[in-house]
Fold this protein.
Amino acid sequence: MEENSRAFVSAQQIPSTMTAAAALAQAVALHRAGRLTDAETMYRQILAAQPRHFDGLHLLGVIFMQRGDAAAAALQIDAALEVEPRHVLALVKPVWLFNRYNTCWRWLLDRDDSPWYPTARLFRQDETRDWNPVIARVASALRHYVPRPLPVGKATRP
């Protein structure tokens, strides 16, 4: 059962004085703490107030995926991509991300890829928090990079 804590705003009701950004920060804090039910409730409340809130839609989809409901996750993330279609490029174009040592939880740990962005490659700082080794790894990867061929009939890259 999820632990109750006074450190978090109750997920039962977002105070009317709380902005969407503050509510999202609170929901993400709950999500990070593993309180998925509370985070889901807050994401749904954000969406009740702003049905086209990209982060609310996307992160609710992440919760569905964390619970093992890939179909609901796909539908939810698809709804987010309808709001912000530019994010779909991360699904089809190569994306290389320089990632700091104390990374956002969404990028997971101990891996250089992302389950949500199949073409993403992560270049993460190590515990020294020095960017030079990261840049060296990217330089090496660039020397060996071969872009995917264009589909027949395409004259330029999208």
